[in-house]
Design a protein that fits this description.
Pfam families: SSL_OB, Stap_Strp_tox_C
Strand content: 35-45%
Helix content: 25-40%
Shape: globular
InterPro entries: Enterotoxin (IPR008992), SSL_OB (IPR015282), Staph/Strept_toxin_CS (IPR006126), Staph_exotoxin (IPR008375), SuperAg_toxin_C (IPR016091), Superantigen_bac (IPR013307), Toxin_b-grasp_Staph/Strep (IPR006123)
Strand order of the largest sheet: 2-3-4-7-6
Domain Staphylococcal/Streptococcal toxin beta-grasp: 135-228
CATH class of the largest domain: Alpha Beta
Number of domains: 3
Domain Staphylococcal superantigen-like OB-fold: 45-126
Number of helices: 3
Distance between the termini: 56 Å
CATH architecture of the largest domain: Roll
Protein name: Exotoxin 1
Order of helices and strands: HEEEEHEEEEEEEHEEEE
């Protein structure tokens, strides 16, 4: 091959390679931008969800119905029709329906007919007055810096759902410690039990629907630890 021809081939290859690299670079940048936008959207969605109101109802009864393969209990409270989905352990526990249970409600959505959809949060009624102030340790990690605070978390039920614990703890973190107000959503809640077992909740996502039916005996909770990471 002549030098002139070789030079042209080398130049063409260089231009082609540069074009591929540029194209790949643009694709990577576009993907990173999309991920950043999604990340910020996730944070805003979590902040909205855990800042929303919750409702506590007592003495709820209703039969289980099948709704697209899911177990649902329908009931009315305060002129609002509720669709309670049982998607976890509560599906088997309350397969015949509810008879005077307590229900902790957080709105998942309102359908076009005005029905409020909620998941889990069913517990037995208190047999007596119950109020427990549980130690809540909040660790905020920013790089190599650690800011630790000792707080308390009030539980007023003998049997409490993981849904209620998750929602109320995160709401307290949103209101007092700035959870989901920056650009980071990472961390976890650790519920330490007196038998040394642990229940962990990932702060980067909502509590899974199937876990919203889990329940704990409030007297068995030793303390609660939270780690919030700024990344």
């Amino acid at each position: 091959m002549k030098l002139k021809t070789l030079a042209k081939a080398t130049l063409a290859l260089g231009l082609l390679t540069t074009g591929v690299i540029t194209s790949e670079g643009q694709a990577v940048q576009a993907k990173e931008k999309q991920e950043r936008v999604q990340h910020l959207y996730d944070i805003r969605d979590l902040h909205r969800y855990y800042s929303a109101p919750s409702f506590e109802y007592s003495n709820i009864s209703g039969k289980v119905e099948n709704y697209n393969g899911s177990n649902v209990v329908r009931f009315n409270q305060k002129d609002q029709n509720h669709q309670l989905f049982l998607l976890g352990k509560d599906k088997e526990k309350y397969k015949e329906g509810l008879e005077g249970q307590d229900v902790f409600v957080v709105q998942e959505l309102i359908d076009p007919n005005g029905r409020l959809y909620t998941v889990g949060g069913v517990t037995k009624k208190n047999s007596q007055s119950s109020e427990t102030n549980t130690q809540l340790v909040v660790n905020k990690v920013d790089g190599g810096n650690l800011d630790s605070s000792i707080d308390s978390f009030l539980i007023n039920k003998e049997e409490v759902s993981l849904k209620e614990l998750d929602f109320k703890i995160r709401k307290q973190l949103v209101e007092k410690y700035g959870l989901y107000k920056g650009t980071s959503k990472y961390g976890k809640i650790t519920i330490n039990m007196k038998d040394e077992k642990k229940v962990e909740i990932d702060l980067s996502d909502k509590l899974q629907f199937e876990r919203m039916g889990d329940v704990l005996n409030s007297k068995d909770i030793k303390n609660i630890a939270v780690t919030m990471k700024k990344i």
